[in-house]
Amino acid sequence: MRNAKGFSFIEILISVSLILFLAALCIPISSKLHIERKILSERRQFTQLLHDELQTFIWSTENSPALHFVRIKKEKEIQISYIPIGNKWKGCATWINAKHEQEESCLYGISEK
Fold it and tell me: Is 74 left (phi over 0), alpha (psi -120 to 50) or beta?
């Protein structure tokens, strides 16, 4: 019997197929995580923008239009609307997210006027 040193062809095929299988699993997961990270980042950014716009709207002496659009980075357009509910204002921001779905975030503010 000969003393064979090294890997056989079958062992190499099995190890390469396992590596390719793991790569095939990780690439779609990484892509999905990237999209979800972008959606969460947009949601935080637009909710902060809505907060600032709602504060300006509530505390201004003259109320601006109850519906307006804000464009961010020439690619995203956000619709901001204000709805009076008694002495409260409901501000909602609506936009199209990275999955091309419509998303909405609403905040409430109390007007002491």
Answer: left
Specify if 87 maps to a domain.
yes
The whole-model pTM stands at 0.73
Can you spell out the DSSP letters for the chain? -----S--HHHHHHHHHHHHHHHHHHHHHHHHHHHHHHHHHHHHHHHHHHHHHHHHHHH-SS---SEEEEEETTTEEEEEEEEEETTEEEEEEEEE-TTS-EEEEEEEEE---
In a domain? residue 33 = yes
Tens-place pLDDT, residues 85-97: 888 889 999 999 9
